[in-house]
């Protein structure tokens, strides 16, 4: 269990999920989340690993299955794999270490780990962790609390943790990314690729999915079929993922006020943006901003 020197039970004003700490870098981001409410069904463009640090055992919905998150097991979510936090209101909160990892950073360890950005990198949605993963996860959580601005330390600990996770849960020696593999993979319709690029470049400009459909030149039914075949998620989930990543970047790195960020992302009312952010990231945008700007 967590050592006695540092308690992760930090005070909070009301019963709602919050970010205790956020670590960011070229690796992506790591969030230490105090969770006591569900998250909506969503997806990320990264591989996503969830580890319990403290509190009640809990569970996630990954695609259509409920999988446990305990002190001895991890939840493993592939890039663009729909998932949701299925909190049980009868249970106490859970502190979760949530890893959102960039494929390009993983490729610095082994080139074929760029496959982490594609479906199927993790063969299963949950699995028993090793004692080493347990120790590394606890060390990472304690370091984020004790030294919130120490990016070098965070990246060192995260490197060891992710190597252990991948070696435990993926057939990484057989995972290859070659031109032959890519050529054999499903191709993305040119019209759908154009729509996806439009969403990524300016998600706030997309007011209605119907606007994307009308500009694509395909029927509504064909649009949804082609999009889900290409990316594994619906256009709405893809749009929300793009909005969230843009929101996280703006909240963390810019000086813009939250109302301006809300408007730039297409939310007519700031409260709608705050609810969207909380339902997808597990924290209010103001709370998220506060913990990303803690001093070294």
UniProtKB/TrEMBL annotation:
Highest rank taxon of the organism: Bacteria
Entry's transmembrane regions: none
Keywords, in A-Z order: Activator, DNA-binding, Transcription, Transcription regulation
PROSITE patterns from the UniProt entry: HTH_ARAC_FAMILY_1 (PS00041), HTH_ARAC_FAMILY_2 (PS01124)
Pfam family, one: AraC_binding
Gene3D superfamilies according to UniProt: Homeodomain-like
Keyword Transmembrane: no
Keyword 4Fe-4S: no
GO MF term list: DNA-binding transcription factor activity; sequence-specific DNA binding
SMART domains (alphabetical): HTH_ARAC (SM00342)
HTH araC/xylS-type domain mapped to chain residues: 189-291
PANTHER family: HTH-TYPE TRANSCRIPTIONAL ACTIVATOR RHAS-RELATED (PTHR46796), TRANSCRIPTIONAL REGULATORY PROTEIN (PTHR46796:SF2)
Name this protein carries in UniProt: AraC-like DNA-binding protein
Organism of this sequence: Aureimonas phyllosphaerae
